Amino acid sequence: MKKTVKKLAAVGLTLTSVMSLVACGNNNNDPGSDNGDGNNGSKEVTKPTDEIEIMVDNTVVTEANGGEAFYKYLQELTGLKLKFIRPDHNGYYDAVASAFASDAQPDVVLLSSDYYALYASNGFLWNMTDAWENSELKKSGRLIATADNIFNSLKVNGEDGTKAMYGFSPYRGNGCCTFIKQSWLEASDIDLTKVQGVTMDWNTYYGYLKQMAADKGHYVISAPDFISMEAPYTNYLPEFYQKAEFTFYQNASGQFVDGFSEKAMQDALQRLQDGVKDGVLDKASLGQKTSDARNKFFSTDASSESGVFTYWAGTWANTLKQNLDSKSMDSRLIAINPIKELGTYVERLAPAWCITNDAKNPEGIFKYFIETMLDGGDIQTAWEYGAKGTHWDDKAESVTIAKKEDDVKTYKDGEFHFLPSPEKPDTWMSKNHIDPILALAKFKTTDPGQDKMTQIALENGEWFATVSKVATPLPMTEVLGLNITDINTARQEVISKVTLGEWTVEEGMNQYKSKVGKNVEECLKSLNSQK
User: Which of 172, 301, 376, 481 has its CA 20 to 30 A from that of 113?
Assistant: First the structure.
């Protein structure tokens, strides 16, 4: 199976194509633990003495922003010899592929969900299921209520078909929820008590959208395109897609099917087309960047302002409010429950820390490096906020950021506070790799930076965890890897042309089958034969 990675690398399988390999559909496999061949719960675990090579992307604080200080601080806290390798950001996964293809593998590699299933199924990653099941962290009682959802989603097929945990995520991946401006509801005389905290059905929700569009005289929703270019794909227009699946997924019978060919997607396409025709959806959403969509939500121009925006939960709930406040706009926002037909929002799978099969003492690396990311103390603090003295401190001092020297912040001894960002000294540091709102384990006492989190972000993040499901990685096959780019290009064309009224839903589906129907059949055959 390792030949698959080399073959895919040879044909130029890069981030754009591989990020299309994660499905957010139903996963009906038994989520229970599987015993891996490489783990032994009774085995004595020794602390690594050799240098550990770790390949990371820019989700870990960069060298330009004090990364070297973080590495040194982490070594002091863990007592490990750590060597961080950080390839160029834009070529990160090409560098990962090259490392695996040449057998010059690091000991630890950080993989997004798009690549996690690929390398697990190709036999490159160590099965850490037993290490996790026997870990002190799992038994600590500090895990958040929804942590099992994340760990169960990390169980994917290995090279021999064993469903196991080949990676560890210390935080939730987060996802998008729908925000409505309260002022827009009020302007259309829509009863707030029928929106806030209520599970609306599609007809009720869409009726409100049309009512607001009629009152404003223009679109209500401007989105980052009509479909996302990466999993979970439908997250920016969830109410329109509902339970339609963009790509392949495993249904309730355990068979892999093409979600795009199903009636649920046809119905979703019709809703999208109606949304544009009824003036609810912004036509300019096609090809629009997330920044463009955000700017329309913040626009002070009444002719281009949007009133409903589906965007990231947690920290962004507060950031959206702050941006509206900065422009003296009404910042009252309502995060609505998933509508009845949607059921739940989708939470993406966070990047996974993986140990390669070439690593010496993988049990020790798991216990003393990976598991300690959530130790509930100093090491977790470092992963959340960075290095003490560089990114934050708790000593008595007065601190300012560049360009605001007259705004002095004074702190007492023992009071946690951020320091100016080394990379951008006119801004404050805020976090490192683990978003404290999304961490999967609580501190033994109190998160030292808890007072720096806004109540809005905390409440929204906690609420989102209760109304979302975690995305499930789609197993990789060689056939799928070689065909997915063409298939997704066809899918995206259908969505854009049907939504804008250039094709009917039927015409769009006929075009899809004509262009890539055989490719889809081959992919399904390969997916279903590997079970």
Answer: 376
